[in-house]
Design goal:
Helices cover about 35% and strands about 20% of the residues. It is an alpha/beta fold. The chain is built from nine helices and 15 strands. The strands form three sheets. It has an eight-stranded mixed sheet with strand order 1-5-6-4-3-2-12-13. The chain has a five-stranded mixed sheet with strand order 7-8-9-11-10, with helices on one face.
Length: about 325
């Protein structure tokens, strides 16, 4: 089994204010088993499966370590795709919830193993920590198991555009200045996600596809809609000040591609509510993949094919 030793990388972005200086960082004495055991020759990365290839994939807000994470759909997505560069745009592991109580089912472990497998087989994996996995910010500039930890990055698309890649929590005033309110809101959101799980278990029993109660409620609440719009504008303004052509972020669990002035705003969504990713093809075109909808459409097509009557030959004559 290959060693997952930590080593410095050439970070192209500044360490966030308040982090320990490079020379004063403490390294963990050993990596946790769920990470250390990921780099093996199991099927976690789906290497034998037929895969769709993209130049770049951006995913964020998987919130592994919570019951609301749709790790099974994320694992399916990772097994069926490959890319030159994979960006993990924050909140992949939910440290807030793990501090309250340990929750780590096999599907969550398998997602980590799949990512490590991709890194082992040549994919450049860049992890930009968010607010829920902010403890990883202490190790920005280092590499673990082929995964680079950066505070942010500037991605250059195939057609030459420069995109700032950030999680986005630094532009959320509630998280930045009133963290106790964010934790309170996080508790209410967790309860909503549990309700989302109950609703979808009932829907599966009725043969209905996945549907996000949390996303539905967010779109119906006026203050949430206003917050999302304001967040997008603030992030785009910050990107313009950096002199880039666009920005890719996560954080607010709302997948979007929107032109704001001279800046193209991309949000890759999440794997709790909508199960979306942002992809870049070989020509540099970026688009959003709704994986929950894609899986349901494939299942619907399979059911339609299975229900289609077949012609049966009787005495050499099709009947």
């Amino acid at each position: 089994m290959a060693s997952l030793s930590a080593r410095p990388v050439t970070a192209r972005s500044a360490t966030p204010p308040g982090n320990p200086p490079q020379g004063g960082r403490r390294l963990p004495p050993m990596l946790p088993d769920w990470l250390r055991d990921g780099d093996d020759d199991g099927d976690g990365g789906g290497q034998g499966a037929r895969r769709t290839r993209y130049r770049t994939i951006f995913i964020s807000d998987a919130h592994l370590g919570t019951a609301g994470s749709n790790a099974g759909l994320l694992l399916d997505f990772l097994k069926r795709h490959e890319c030159e560069t994979l960006y993990l745009v924050g909140d992949i592991v939910d440290g807030w919830q793990l501090r309250k109580g340990w929750y780590w089912p096999q599907a969550h472990n398998d997602v980590v193993r799949a990512v490590l497998k991709m890194a082992k087989h040549g994919t450049r994996v860049i992890y930009i920590p968010g607010n829920h996995d902010e403890h990883f910010r202490d190790y920005v500039g280092l590499e673990f198991g082929g995964i680079e930890l950066l505070a942010d990055d500037v991605h250059v698309t195939a057609d030459g555009r420069r995109l700032l890649v950030i999680h986005g929590d630094q532009f959320d005033n509630v998280v930045l200045y009133h963290k106790w309110i964010a934790f309170l809101g996080d508790g209410a959101y967790t309860l909503l996600l549990k309700s989302n799980g109950w609703v979808n278990r009932l829907r599966r029993l009725c043969g209905l596809p996945y549907w996000s109660l949390a996303a539905h409620m967010k779109k119906r609440v006026k203050n949430a809609v206003q917050f999302i719009s304001r967040f997008e504008e603030v992030v785009a303004h910050a990107a313009a000040e950096r002199g880039v052509d666009g920005v890719v972020c996560g954080h607010i669990h709302s997948a979007e591609i929107r032109q704001i002035g001279d800046i193209t705003y991309y949000n890759d969504g999440d794997w709790v509510e909508s199960c979306t990713a942002l992809i870049e093809d070989g020509a540099g075109t970026l688009s959003i993949v709704d994986w929950a909808e894609r899986v349901e459409r494939e299942a619907r097509d399979d059911r339609a094919r299975a229900a289609k009557p077949r012609l049966v030959a009787v005495d050499g004559v099709a009947g």
